[in-house]
């Protein structure tokens, strides 16, 4: 059973666990990693380790802790998918964003500049990080329900990058069109479409993993953070 290696103090004074990955140099800009609907699992911890290998201090907060601390699921069984969607349905976005800000603040105390990156549910939290938090830069991979929060786009004042899968089973074409309509003209936003790719194309081991698309998105993410953090 995985055990968190750091503790974050939340807005309401409680303790939230997190996984912290540090580069070999011992320091670097910070990145808060917002999880998918499977919790702080091996996939998310591997993302943090990858970012640490690129010179960033990466923190994955346990964003489901208010529902159940320490959730760690895979995408390999129907039972785990069912539980993941239960958690997604129970997750409170506003409290989650308070917890994202708490993680950003926690990391900023160690690193200075802090960005956010998120996947699926976390992709929408990365978008909302650009509208609601003091993150210095944010990247969202195939974020769900971003189209429902486009009224907040006027609040974006720091760089934002979104990776959009054109065949995303959870983000229909009309939602993608709305995102482009609002954000294409925003000087702070950069949108990349991955034509023919489905949701979670960058999740290693997932049903829709695409090495070429993942490598391209990841290279863009690293270049973006190195330029903005």
Question: Explain this structure to me?
Answer:
The chain has 229 residues and is α/β, with parallel strands linked by helices. The chain has one domain (6-228): Rossmann fold (3-Layer(aba) Sandwich). 37% of the residues lie in helices and 19% in strands. The chain is built from six helices and eight strands. An eight-stranded mixed beta sheet has the order 1-2-4-3-5-6-7-8, with helices on both faces. Helix 4 links the parallel strand 5 and strand 6 (137-141). Helix 3 packs across helix 4 (121-132). The longest helix has 19 residues, at 93-111. The chain is globular. The model has no long low-confidence stretch (mean pLDDT 96).
- Shape category: globular
Question: How many DSSP H or I helices?
Answer: 6
CATH class: Alpha Beta
Rg from Cα: 16 Å
Tell me the fraction of residues in β-strands, as a range. Answer: 15-25%
- What is the CATH architecture term? 3-Layer(aba) Sandwich
Question: What is the share of helical residues?
Answer: 25-40%
Total domain modules? 1
Ends apart, CA distance between termini: 33 Å
What is the total tally of β strands?
8
- With strands numbered from the N-terminus, the spatial order across the biggest sheet is 1-2-4-3-5-6-7-8
User: Given the helix and strand composition, which structural class is it?
Assistant: alpha/beta
CATH evolutionary superfamily: Alpha/Beta hydrolase fold, catalytic domain
- Give a quick account of the main beta sheet: strands, pairing sense, barrel closure: 8 strands, mixed
SSE ordering: EEEHEHHEHEEHEH
- Reported by name, the CATH topology is Rossmann fold
As residue ranges, the low-confidence spans are: none
Average pLDDT metric:
96
């Amino acid at each position: 059973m995985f055990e968190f290696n750091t503790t974050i103090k939340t807005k309401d004074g409680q303790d939230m666990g997190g996984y912290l990955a540090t580069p070999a140099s011992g320091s670097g800009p910070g990145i808060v990693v917002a999880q998918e609907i499977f919790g702080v699992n091996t996939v998310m911890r591997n993302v943090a380790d990858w970012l640490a290998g690129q010179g960033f201090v990466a923190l994955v907060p346990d964003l489901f802790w208010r529902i159940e601390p320490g959730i760690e699921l895979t995408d390999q069984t129907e039972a785990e998918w069912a539980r993941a969607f239960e958690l997604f349905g129970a997750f409170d976005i506003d409290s989650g964003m308070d917890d994202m800000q708490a993680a950003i603040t926690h990391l900023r105390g160690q690193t200075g500049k802090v960005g956010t990156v998120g996947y699926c549910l976390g992709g929408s939290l990365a978008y909302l990080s650009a509208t609601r938090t003091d993150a210095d830069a944010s990247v969202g991979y195939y974020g769900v329900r971003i189209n429902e929060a486009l009224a907040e786009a006027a609040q974006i004042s720091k760089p934002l990058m979104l990776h959009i899968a054109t065949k995303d089973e959870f983000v229909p074409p009309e939602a993608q069109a709305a995102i482009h309509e609002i954000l294409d003209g925003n000087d702070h936003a950069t949108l990349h479409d991955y034509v023919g790719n489905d949701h979670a194309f960058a999740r290693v081991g997932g049903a829709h993993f695409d090495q070429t698309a993942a490598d391209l998105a990841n290279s863009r993410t690293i270049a973006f953070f190195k330029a903005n953090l």
